[in-house]
Design a protein that fits this description.
Blueprint (H helix, E strand, L loop, with lengths): L3 E4 L5 H12 L3 E6 L2 H15 L4 E5 L5 H9 L10 E4 L15 H29 L3 E5 L12 H20 L6 E7 L6 H5 L4 H7 L8 H13 L8 E4 L14
Parallel strand pairs: 1-2, 1-4, 2-3, 4-5, 5-6, 6-7
Helix pairs in contact: 1-8, 3-4, 4-5
């Protein structure tokens, strides 16, 4: 029986790359996101390439616990036993000093990066415990290791993801369920366009002078962790571009 992977924030960036990697590797993949049109487009493409039963779209907002619950409960019987949960949905907004930040941006980051992860963990992991198997992948960031200029609230949310991941691993140590934290560095996706509210020129400057990581690079790391032998728990992986030392030291050429 093929394993079922659920990926939040699967309509772009690292989430979409994870969906591609897992689908091509033969997993059944539940793609979740808020953009129904994009979800349907991706699923149509995957089904044409890998068969009609390889993916399942699920449209909802991870910030809304009731919507998350209804969405998961709506899954057909053959899709309910989720083997791998990839808590990928997340974003950064703004790069202002903390004392000049937009409270609306703060709320969106906290609700998505922290509460969204908690919502999905609370809904999916009890089933893993009941079945005595499963794997949770949480998408952290190098930003969770130390704050950088302008990162304040985003860095705080990713620090929280680190703490929540470590706490979940402790809570599940008596089970075979594995818990992995992936911490990407500079990855060229739509991340910076979102952060700068659609300012493409400003977003492009983030990646100038360096060859950044791609979503596929991170997806390959996620797949590696999932496919490790059952007795091997890849607890935490920091993935940086070659000329990036940490969240704030980048050698540009």
């Amino acid at each position: 029986m093929k394993k079922i992977v659920m990926i939040t924030g699967a309509t772009s960036g690292i989430g979409e790359a994870c969906a591609r990697v897992f689908t091509s590797a033969g997993y059944h993949v539940i793609l979740t996101g808020r953009n129904r049109t994009r979800l349907d487009e991706l699923c149509d493409g995957f089904m044409k390439a890998y068969g009609p039963d390889c993916v399942m779209p699920l449209c909802y907002d991870v910030c809304d616990l009731d919507a998350c619950t209804r969405a998961v409960e709506s899954l057909p019987a053959g899709w309910k036993d989720i083997d791998v949960l990839v808590n990928n949905a997340g974003l950064a907004l703004g790069l202002e000093p903390e004392y000049e930040g937009d409270p609306a941006d703060w709320s969106t980051m906290i609700d998505t990066n922290i509460k969204g992860l908690l919502n999905m963990t609370r809904i999916i992991v009890p089933g893993m415990v009941e079945r005595n198997c499963g794997h949770v992948i949480n998408m952290g960031s190098v930003a969770g290791d130390a704050a950088y200029a302008g990162g304040n609230v985003y860095c705080a949310t990713k620090s929280a993801v680190k703490a929540l991941t470590d706490g979940l691993r402790i809570d599940l140590a008596h089970t075979p369920i594995r818990v992995t934290l992936i911490k990407p560095g500079l990855v060229e996706t739509n991340f910076s366009r979102v952060r700068f509210h659609g300012d493409n020129d400003r977003a492009a400057r983030v990646y100038s002078g360096i060859e950044p990581l791609t979503g596929a690079d991170i997806a390959d790391t996620v797949l590696y962790a999932v496919q490790a032998p059952a007795h091997v728990q890849i607890a935490e992986v920091l993935v940086l571009a070659t000329h990036q030392a940490n969240g704030s030291v980048i050698c540009r050429r």
